[in-house]
Design a protein that fits this description.
The protein starts with 7 loop residues before the first helix and ends in a 15-residue tail after the last strand. With 267 residues, the chain is an alpha+beta fold. The chain has two domains: 82 residues, 434 Repressor (Amino-terminal Domain) (Orthogonal Bundle); 134 residues, Umud Fragment, subunit A, CATH 2.10.109.10. It contains nine helices and eight strands. β4 and β5 form a beta hairpin. Helix content is 28%, strand content 17%.
Length: 267
């Protein structure tokens, strides 16, 4: 149990959440039974009568039942805990003094938080240019381990598509991040039926990087842009002027401009 003392205000807020998603107490019970089955414990089940008592502030539910309610109501677990006066953000804010030396690791919330790069780094990273993400930060001695895990796994690389690189627009928009398999360097020219199936490659040129469709004829490499990009086809000598880093296997990108205003009035 979170607390032996009942909390009428917390119960009212939980009821408001239930009404927001338009569920009856019996429907909540049924959904919690599925969660309890998935978790292998009846502790996660919130019966109709229990939920009524909770909403009336007659008692405080266990952490397991609050977990079920957070999932059913579509709220973060820490938001539901906050109804009962428990703020996870305060954990670690005032560290306790321990008698023995020990390792200190980041909390779950800290590992999920974004970090702000130093001003010197932000000035040196050119977002206009396409690049390998690892090389964008090569001059920064201490990159958080959490970031490195997100940038690339053991068998992949991560590339950034520069804000001025519209080679494959709108299939891959400027500012996107792409995952690269460095083991797939052979250019495939057959067995694809449309532009969505056509292999995309990440290449290093003499002084830049590019993400593009490719065609290789002996030592002549052709970089083929998407028709909608209005970018020119580029002819290069291979491997003199270009190195294939690998094939793009995944992409993360915006599909709309954050400044777009459907009313036609710019923000």
């Amino acid at each position: 149990m979170l607390s032996s003392a009942p909390s009428p205000d917390a119960g009212k807020r939980l009821k408001a959440e239930r009404l927001r998603v338009r569920l009856s107490t019996r429907e909540v019970e049924k959904l919690s039974q599925q969660i309890a089955k998935d978790r292998g414990s009846q502790e996660y089940c919130v019966s109709h009568t229990w939920l009524t008592d909770i909403e009336n502030g007659e008692f405080t539910p266990s952490i397991y039942k609050l977990y079920s309610l957070s999932r059913i109501y579509g709220r973060d677990y820490d938001e539901i805990l906050a109804f009962f006066g428990i703020c996870l953000r305060e954990i670690g804010a005032s560290p306790l003094s321990f008698p023995r030396t020990h390792l200190v690791g980041p909390t779950l919330r800290e590992t999920a938080q974004a970090f702000m790069a130093p001003i010197e780094l932000r000035k040196s990273v050119l977002l206009e240019r396409t690049n390998l993400v690892q090389q964008m930060f090569e001059n920064w001695g201490e990159v958080p381990i959490v970031l490195l895990r997100q940038l690339a796994s053991k068998n992949t690389l991560c590339g950034y598509i520069g804000l001025e690189d519209r080679t494959l627009y709108p299939l891959i928009r400027p500012g996107s991040f792409v995952q690269i398999d460095p083991h797939q360097k052979r250019i495939v020219t057959a067995n694809w039926h449309n532009e969505f199936e056509r292999p995309i490659y990440f290449l290093e040129l003499r002084e830049s990087y590019v993400c593009s469709w490719c065609q290789l004829d002996g030592t002549h490499l052709t970089l083929i842009p998407s028709p909608q990009s209005h970018e020119p086809v580029r002819q290069l000598r291979y491997p003199t002027d270009a190195e294939i880093i690998g094939r793009v296997t995944a992409v993360t990108m915006r599909i709309a401009d954050v400044s777009y205003d459907p009313s036609g009035i710019s923000s």
